[in-house]
Amino acid sequence: MNLERLTGQEILARVPDLVKIYRAAFGGPPWHEDEHAADAFAERLTTDARRPGFTAVLADDNGDPVGFGTAWHTPSPFPTGRAYDLVRAELGEAVETRLVGALEVDELAVSPHARGRGLGASVLDLLCGGADPCWLLTSPQAADAIRFYERLGWQRLTGPGADVVVFSRSPANYHGTW
User: Fold this and answer.
1) Which pLDDT tens digit goes with each residue over 22-35?
2) Per the domain annotation, does 54 fall within a domain?
3) Which of 74, 88, 80, 81 is nearest to 133 (CA)?
4) Which residues, other chains included, contact 101 with Cβ-Cβ below 8 Å and sequence gap of 6+?
5) Does 129 map to a domain?
6) CA–CA separation, 134 and 144 (whole Å)
7) Cα-Cα end-to-end distance for the chain
8) What is the CATH number of the domain that holds 80?
9) Does residue 93 fall inside a structural domain?
10) Can you give the residue ranges of the N-acetyltransferase domain (predicted)?
């Protein structure tokens, strides 16, 4: 496996690779993302890659792209739209002190055939580094993803009945490579 950190400009040249991974990673349960959702991801990625501080990690296996992660620092004030409103509904004003300024992991995807080899953890590790506080969210229906983040030591910020599951990782609870 090869991991490569990419800037927003560099990732724009790789959008077709990321869309292919996205389709494979999120086409099945619990996501059931269709072609329309994959196209919407490509449009979001094109916009997101221009955000200040955008960073990405692309993983390949012998030249075949098999995983990626994207992130940026959450601006102040805490944004609205997308899933931000769900996060604010669950965490209230704590979003301003806990999440603003932290590295926000927007996407983490690994092709199904490449799972089970530590690739997701490696992508996440390189994406987040060891110094920055980070946060991410997932669906309450994504039991495998929830277990994955818990196994890596991420702290769950939302309760079991939440409409969105928010995790954080601070330098204090970071223990090096997962």
Assistant:
1) 999 999 999 999 99
2) yes
3) 74
4) 73, 74, 76, 133
5) yes
6) 20
7) 16
8) 3.40.630.30
9) yes
10) 1-172
Backbone φ and ψ for 68, nearest 5 degrees, come out as -160, 165
Say how far apart CA 114 and CA 67 lie, in whole Å. Answer: 8
Count of positions (residues) in the chain: 178
pTM above 0.90, yes or no: yes
Please name the residues in contact with 112: beta carbons below 8 A apart, sequence gap of 6 or more: 24, 25, 28
74: number of Cβ within 10 Å: 22
Q: Is the peptide bond before 77 cis (omega within 30 degrees of 0)?
A: yes
pLDDT digits (tens, 9 = 90+) for 112-127: 999 999 999 999 999 9
Q: How many domains does the chain have?
A: 1
Whether 104 contacts 74, CB under 8 Å: yes
| Percentage with pLDDT > 70 across the chain | 94
Domain of residue 153 covers 2-173
Q: What 3-state DSSP class applies to 65?
A: strand
CA distance 115 to 24: 11
Tokens of 37: 């959702």
User: Is 178 inside a domain boundary?
Assistant: no
pLDDT in tens, 149-160: 999 999 999 999
